[in-house]
TrEMBL record:
<protein>
    <recommendedName>
        <fullName>Endonuclease-reverse transcriptase</fullName>
    </recommendedName>
</protein>
Length: 235
C-alpha cells in the first residue's frame, strides 16, 4: 500500500511539473522588457540546438545522409578501392555528421543512433547487407575508419582540453561552471556536457589536470602529435 501511495505522489508531482513547464513555455521568457518564446530546439549558425542534445544529433545524421547521397555515385561504385572510399567518407560525410559535437551532452541512445546511420553507409559502400553476417569491426577495417563513438569522444575531450588551458577569467571557461538555478524536475537529471566529459575521462583513465599539458593530453585522447619538421613549426 505504501508503494502505491509513493508512486501516485510521484506521478502527481510529475504532472504538476509538466503543467508548470507548459505554462512557462506559453508565457515566454522576459529579458529586459522583451518577451522571447520558449522552445525545445532551434537553429543557430547552421546547427540545431536542443534542450537535451537529441535535436542536434538527428539534424547531423540528416545532414550526413544528404552529403552521402550527393557522393553516392562515387561511394557506392565498385571501381574505387574501399580505403579510398573510406577517406572520402571521413573527409566529407563524417565531418558533416560530427559538426559541433564538441558541445553535445550525448547519451547512449544518441551514439547508437549515429552508429546505426554510419554502419548503413559503410555497408552500402562495401556492397554488403545484414544477411552477409559481417561484423561492424570487419567492415570498418575494410574501409579504414574508426567507430564514430570514438570520434565523438575525441572531439569532445579535445575541446575540453582547449577550455581547460584557458585563463580562469575567460568567459568560455567560466560558462562551463555556471549552475542554472530553479526547481529540480522529478526523475533522473538530464545528461549534461560536464557529465559526458567526466564519463569520457573515466573511460580513458585521465583527469582534468592532464589537460594542462597539451602534448600529454593529445596522446591521452588518441590524437597523434604533429611532427614539427613536417609542419614547418618550431618544437
Amino acid at each position: 500500500m505504501f508503494d502505491v501511495i509513493t508512486k501516485w505522489c510521484s506521478f502527481r508531482a510529475f504532472q504538476h511539473q509538466e503543467q508548470r513547464l507548459l505554462e512557462e513555455r506559453e508565457a515566454g521568457l522576459e529579458v529586459c522588457g522583451d518577451t522571447y518564446e520558449v522552445v525545445e530546439s532551434f537553429y543557430y549558425l547552421g546547427d540545431m540546438l536542443g534542450a537535451e542534445g537529441g535535436a542536434a544529433v538527428t539534424s547531423r545524421v540528416r545532414s550526413g545522409w544528404k552529403k552521402f547521397r550527393e557522393l553516392a555515385p562515387f561511394l557506392t561504385s565498385k571501381a574505387p578501392p574501399l580505403k579510398m572510399k573510406g577517406q572520402v567518407y571521413t573527409a566529407c560525410v563524417r565531418s558533416s555528421m560530427v559538426y559541433g559535437c564538441e558541445t553535445w551532452p550525448t547519451r547512449v541512445g544518441h551514439i547508437q543512433q549515429m552508429e546505426r546511420a554510419e554502419m548503413r553507409m559503410i555497408r552500402w559502400m562495401c556492397g554488403v547487407s545484414l544477411a552477409d553476417r559481417l561484423s561492424s569491426e570487419e567492415l570498418r577495417r575494410r574501409v579504414g575508419v574508426e567507430g564514430i563513438g570514438i570520434v565523438l569522444r575525441r572531439h569532445r575531450l579535445r575541446w575540453f582540453g582547449h577550455v581547460e588551458r584557458k585563463e580562469d577569467v575567460n568567459w568560455v571557461k567560466r560558462c562551463t561552471n555556471v549552475i542554472v538555478g530553479g526547481p529540480t524536475p522529478v526523475g533522473r537529471p538530464r545528461k549534461t556536457w560536464q557529465s559526458s566529459v567526466s564519463d569520457d575521462m573515466r573511460l580513458l583513465g585521465v583527469n582534468a589536470r592532464d589537460a594542462t599539458d597539451r602534448a600529454k593530453w593529445r596522446r591521452a585522447i588518441g590524437r597523434k602529435q604533429a611532427n614539427p619538421e613536417q609542419t614547418g613549426q618550431r618544437p
